[in-house]
Design brief:
Keywords (chains A, B, C): Isomerase, Peroxisome
Structural class of chain A: alpha+beta
Helix content of chain A: 40-55%
Largest sheet of chain A: 4 strands, mixed
Strand content of chain A: 5-15%
Subcellular location (chains A, B, C): Peroxisome
Protein name (chains A, B, C): ACB domain-containing protein
Oligomer: homotrimer
Number of strands of chain A: 4
Main location (chains A, B, C): other
GO molecular function, one term (chains A, B, C): delta(3)-delta(2)-enoyl-CoA isomerase activity
Number of helices of chain A: 7
Distance between the termini of chain A: 34 Å
Chain lengths: 227, 227, 227
């Protein structure tokens, strides 16, 4: 689920004790909504935000929520990692780069993350996965749907209505059955996904510290500067 | 292959010795057709029928058949398990529920079966698989084709002609080559599929015995009764 | 990448020392092009050609190439194995068969190869994979794209322009990052793919030596002869 959170009058903050600096967390009708709340930064994720997301998910896992929605405030879901979190980038470059977050991974000398090196080929075949992961193919929403990355695409005007109609129906499903079914569907791959993630992270750390990555980032800035 | 068996004059019963109570089993042109034969119950599957299907498949595996077709008599392929087979459902509810077999699994507090928790994510990605297995998304025939669950979709008027044209061609393919190729394609996953199936069945048994499942079934009946 | 190599004036042969009998190998803009060069035989692959392809790939892996393109000279990418490489086929039949290379595998009593018994079901689901691997379904280019076998389809008139626009952009990507990302994407499956390939090859050898295969080939020739 992407784009801004719905304007729902009856929303109430979740867990009186839990206060969040970077998130808006509300619960209603068995649905917990975690809303990234740095709209002026297009919801770029900081280390603090990562920690708060983990905390909010743990709370939602313990209360009566049937569904948890992750979304962003403002007109942008999320622009990726806030690059101010990363060291080893020359000071002058960070501001420029932050403006262009979402920039393509391999163009910056990066490598796949989030288990995409495993899940993308599984989902769409090696040819189309390579097109995205190695050659930076950008997809339209319709193409993302065709490749199995999202389930449905709506026009902006009806997005909130269509999504929340579905979410409210899902929120009424038997909670334990849903949780156990999800465990069945996901459990088979859990060990594999952790191993894949470890490998990807290890590779990313190497990449960030490499001269090639640094040069790619520098020449990216220079190209931008010329525009 | 779904829908009714073709009206083929030259059909003959398979294996003189094998008599079936709940199936029509015929063999012609190297093709064995196993037809579920309880049209008044929309071919709901009983325990007896399961045993006869196993027997019929074993026979077809031993004779000269190249292809085995599973279909149903009447205008309905199969409405799923005959719920009279299952205990632990209050007596009053069974008749109502049988009328609505095919009712959605997780709505009734159930969990995925038939290895779908493994094969669906593999085939269509986790997002679209979850939509079906957790949130009861019903597909049109065209959508089922797009997600890889079926290979082709025909209008009702030409269905039998189109399908049997293909089947008759398949029935002429070299038998051993086909069997060995099928073993290659399926063998890789056989062990995994058995493990997945064991897990799914274990989970389903828990589900059927849970209060949540019982309550979901009861509220399903009450909703129906109000209509 | 398929079809003929581009008419590029600035191309130069790769590695002065490496001479190839059956291939044209050129390198330009970090892109090595390996072009199968038996246009009069529709680039049917001989044992010598296999050895030269291996050698050319090893050279491209060691030099500065970022991308390696495999294509064919003339208007045909490749018609498959040159059947003159295979013994156990009666002398009279080889010429006829060579003309029809690309003939369907299971119709000739063969079985899947090139890891397709594993990669096809993974990519498109078991139903559609079986349709191709067991029942010889031929795909249009558009269908191949929908099933994930290719990433894009172009009309013949713009094919070279479209493909080379992409390749030249890919050739400018950071080399190490690309290689490491490719290793990530492919590494997970490498062991599995070798095991699958071993099984497929073993099965193919059995098939080629079987009476069924021989009979299927013979009846294929007879059917052709009657046309």
């Amino acid at each position: 689920v992407a784009a801004e959170a719905p304007d729902q009058a009856a929303e109430k903050p979740a867990g009186g004790a839990a206060a969040f600096e970077t998130l808006l967390v509300t619960t209603e009708d068995n649905i917990t909504t975690i809303c990234l709340n740095r709209p002026t930064k297009k919801n770029a994720i900081t280390v603090e935000m990562y920690n708060e997301i983990i905390k909010a998910l743990e709370l939602a896992g313990k209360d009566d929520s049937v569904i948890t929605v992750l979304t962003g405030s403002g007109d942008f879901y999320c622009s990726g990692n806030d690059l101010n979190n990363f060291t080893k980038i020359p000071e002058g470059g960070i501001e420029k780069m932050a403006k262009d977050s979402g920039e393509l991974l391999s163009q910056l000398g990066q490598s796949p993350e989030g288990c995409s090196s495993y899940t993308f080929p599984k989902m769409m075949g090696l040819a189309k996965a390579s097109e995205m992961l190695l050659f930076n193919k950008k997809l339209t929403a319709t193409e993302a749907c065709e490749r199995g990355l999202v389930t449905e695409v709506f026009p902006d005007s009806s997005f909130q209505t269509e999504v929340w109609t579905r979410l409210k129906a899902y929120g009424k499903l038997p909670r334990n059955s849903l949780a156990l079914s999800k465990q069945l569907v996901r459990g088979v791959e859990k060990e594999r996904l952790h191993a894949v993630n470890d490998q990807e992270v290890e590779r990313l750390v190497e990449r960030w510290l490499s001269d090639e990555c640094m040069n790619a980032i520098m020449s990216f800035f220079q190209a931008k500067a010329k525009l």
